Amino acid sequence: MHLVRQANGAEPLRRFLESYGRHPAGASHDLLLLFKGFESSLPDEYEALLKGVAHQRRFIPDRGFDVDAYFGFARTHEAAAFCFLNSFSVILADGWLASLHRALSEGDAGMVGATGSWQSLATVDADLRMTAFSRRPGYPAWKRQLLEWFPFLRKLVPAVRRQLLQGMFGPFPNHHLRTNAFMIRRATALDVRLAPPRWKFDAYRFESGKRGLTAQVLGMGKAVLVVGRDGVAYDRENWHLSNTFWRRNQENLLVADNQTRSYESSDPELRAAYSAIAWGAWADAGPDRERIPIA
What we know:
This protein is α/β, with parallel strands linked by helices. It has helices at about 10-20, 45-50, 65-75, 95-105, 125-135, 140-155, 160-170, 185-190, 200-210, 215-220, 260-265, 270-280, and strands at about 1-5, 30-35, 55-60, 80-85, 90, 110-115, 115, 175, 180-185, 225, 235, 255. Helix 1 links the parallel strand 1 and strand 2 (about 30-35). The radius of gyration is 19 Å and the shape is globular.
């Protein structure tokens, strides 16, 4: 399933379809395009992009977040497993779906994905986070201002803030699979508890919180793996060695998204900040060598 949101325009769909056509999946599958925020028909621009692409389509209102759509669909449709790709996904390697499916089946994993992180919102350094996110090109001015205030607020009410965040998120390393591109068995998805996220912070809690998606799957006694373009499945203690997310040149990345592109296009100082947020002492922004294009 690839999520297509009207608010993003047609460009992300074009990038996804080009990558989907360029890189054979390597496994039999049905492609479902979930159109969010559209009417029951598509503008001509979208129909032109979809010409000749075998797919099914569904239309849903533009409310909630990606995970609502993913798990809602899994609960109402039959399939052995689902692979979910967000609006900004770009496939980077041949056999990408086969690699994910092999990792899911052979190791009896509960969930596998293209990227994972150890970041913890409960323990990340506020100044480091401000450096990483406020310096991104095109970052909204109001968000930059909030990040500039954040260290002050952190010092003003440290005990309250620490108590709240530690109640929601585990300490570093806070293992969580990112939901930009992941595969899950339907049987596992049906056992996942998801309260409809009302705010973006709710989505963060579902992705990386103590009662979030990865935590629930691990609680079922199932492994959660990151799969690289090398076809290797990495257990959570070795996710950093996969070099797929915010580490070195992300040269082993299987499916790119807006966050991996932000890292790829950043200068060495900013890349180092990203890497430290995701991997702590295991960070490695890599040498300043030629970068692997991921667009």
